[in-house]
Amino acid sequence: MSTELHRYDITQESDFLQPRDFNRKTLLQHVDQVFRAQITNIIDLTSEEKLFHVRLVKDHQRERFTFLPGQFVMLEVPGYGEIPISISSAPTNKGYLELCIRKVGRVTSVLHKARRGALVGIRGPFGTSFPMEKMRDHSVLLIAGGLGLAPLRAPIFHVTENRTNYDQVHIIYGTRTPDQLLFDYQYEQWRRINGVNLSIIVEQPDEAWTGEVGLITKLIDDLDFDPANTYAIVCGPPVMFKFVCNQLSTKGVPMHRMFVSLERRMHCGMGKCCRCNIGSTYTCVDGPVFDYWSVMNLKEAI
Amino acid sequence: MLFKILTKDGFEQLVDGILESNEVIGPKRVATGANGKPIHQYLPVTSFGELDLDYETTEFPAKTYFLPYRETLSTFHFDEADWTQEIRYRIQPRAIVGLHACDINGLLKLDKVFGRDAFPSPYYLSRRRNTLVVGIDHMPCEGGFCQSVDAHVVSHGFDLFLTDLGDRYFVSIGSDRGFDLVGKVENREVSEDDTHAYLAVRRRISDAFKTHVRTQNLPTLLDLEFDSPVWKRWGDKCLSCGSCAMACPTCYCYGVNEEVSMDFTVGTKVKQLHSCNLVDFAMVAGDHNFRPSRESRLKYRYYHQHRGFAEAYDEPKCVGCNRCGRVCLAGINPPEVIADLHEEDRA
User: Fold this and answer.
1) What are phi and psi for residue B37, nearest 5 degrees?
2) Interchain contact A14–B (C-beta under 8 A)
3) d(CA B275, CA B281)
4) Domain region containing B315
5) Does pLDDT of B154 surpass 80?
């Protein structure tokens, strides 16, 4: 008696025949198949950071690709590796994604050498987003330290594109030195938007610097806002958002109305590899956006 | 659940039938340990006689047949500045015969991570659904505390589950393909005597556990004892070798690396199981390490086992097999570490 066990081919499941869509997390699909994408533009920001315009090659994939402010993608450089990068562009921009990348490791170093036209892979979008809908009709503080302006740029675009939905809007940005300021060509544009208040501070000014000097908390000290009617998004290194959130908390902003974006190394983006776990929470699936109360409850987050 | 009775010859015929055209994995005696006990591993067998269904435990779990230690996720074929990506899933069917309840419970936990909710993994599911699982009851293994984490019994996640009644097997049938297999060999319905004999065996197993771990309130205790000196005490002993994660039936964390062929025509994206106790686990670009100390990494493993996983799935990740404790050269084992935490609580 011979028994041939049934051969099960997962790719014949009906789910697999549908177009890949990472927003549909429960769909059984090629989770490791990337969208082919082309680097269409490279913009030098500072000596360490560049902004990449990345366009999904296939029209129907580009049309279907949607994301929310705060989400990230896994960027694949075939042969080198895959890294999580927060999306820095407006969700309404269907043409291309903007990814602000600091040269810091193996994959980012090769990206900094990439030429216009290079083909990369994109998987995503992944992760939680800033609850822009909940913030409607409230004042919004958009606060970034250093590279934190990269993930903050998507909510800035959202707020400025939907300006009537929000009350007072304050963009507050700080870096260590003036030459680290990202997207400096956009400040004038933001400043001119009616009802948007942009303040910038650096810790260590150079000779040419005429603006504010000090830590970002200094700007918040001077800020006039109604804590009972305010949401805050704070992006930056842990030491920065800890001080800022505590300060906002003292001023009366509830912790569940402050949102931060956390960063960890990720190898999958899908709640599997555990590399981004904080305590035991997946930064990739449960985050990267957390409210401050959740962050306070995450062991080893700060 | 449906139940049947198989004679031992009948079961042998059943396995022989599978062996004729499929790969069969099972507990195989591979050596004798320093303590005089036989060492078993789940390995491919070529005949029924190679299976030692009376084994106590294996050094390594069967997880490698579902989550291989190394697996190619995709292949990039380079052509000038262009490339294409190729993905293949393993679809060859095979059978694993002789898994204990703890290991099947381990698979059920992996099912939750890789088969449900967010981003089901086709790599895992393809292997899981192409694997026929035949489990078997056994007396508690030395040091095993599966009873304390409710993993000494299993009610699904297998195709067939055997309980040895001396001259016959009491068979719990967990799937239609299991049912069909039983139908191919001589079998009979379960009598009242069989049921009594089965329940007596189950009771005998339940009563035989010697190692117990207090898991009540463990998630909260772990939060309270986050800064406890217990972690330093055990962390100082830890060799950071990662053996515990390799031997664990449910540890699934991994890293992904890419390799390029010597002629630059092919790039492979390879997933390799990792361990949170290895020094580079939480290392990020720029050489910052979120868990630089051994104690922080060891503590993290316990947090994932007994707090994080419990928070996500209402049950610990640990199945109580104590393979991590047995394999640890530094003698770190869950019963003692957790007892130590409870002690700290009283101190």
Assistant:
1) -80, 150
2) no
3) 7
4) 218-252+276-346
5) yes
- Report the candidate in B144, B316, B320, B325 with the shortest Cα–Cα distance to residue B222: B316
> Mean pLDDT of all residues in chain A?
93
What CA dihedral angle connects B138, B60, B233 and B230, to 10 degrees? Answer: -50
B145 and B8 share a domain?
yes
* Confidence class for position B347, pLDDT limits 50, 70, 90: low
Three-state secondary structure call for residue B84:
strand
Distance CA A57, CA A72 (A): 19
- Residues B50, B12, single domain; the answer is yes
pTM: 0.93
B274-333 pLDDT per residue, tens: 999 999 888 887 788 889 899 999 999 998 888 888 888 889 999 999 999 999 999 999
Q: List the 32-61 stretch of A: residues with Cβ below 8 A of B.
A: 32-34
What is this model's ipTM? Answer: 0.91
Lookup: tokens for A54: 């990345």
Q: Give the distance, in angstroms, between the CA of residue A34 and the centroid of all CA atoms in the same chain.
A: 19
Using a CB–CB cutoff of 8 Å, tell me whether A128 touches chain B. no
DSSP class per residue in A101-170: EE--SHHHHHHHHPPTT-EEEEEEEES----TTTTTTSEEEEEEEGGGHHHHHHHHHHHHHTGGG-S-EE
Residue A195 Ramachandran class (φ > 0 left, ψ -120 to 50 alpha, else beta): left
Longest dimension (CA), chain A: 89
How many Cα atoms occupy the beta-carbon half-sphere of B176 within 13 Å?
2
The total domain count for chain B is 2
Helix intervals (H) in A14-105: 59-64
What is the per-residue pLDDT for A302? 65
- All residues of chain B having their beta carbon less than 8 Å from the beta carbon of residue A105 are 284-286
Query: B175 with B31, same domain?
Result: yes
In chain A the domains, ranked by start, together with CATH numbers, are: 10-126 (2.40.30.10), 139-297 (3.40.50.80)
* Average pLDDT of the segment spanning B44-56: 96
Q: Do B120 and A279 touch (CB under 8 A)?
A: no
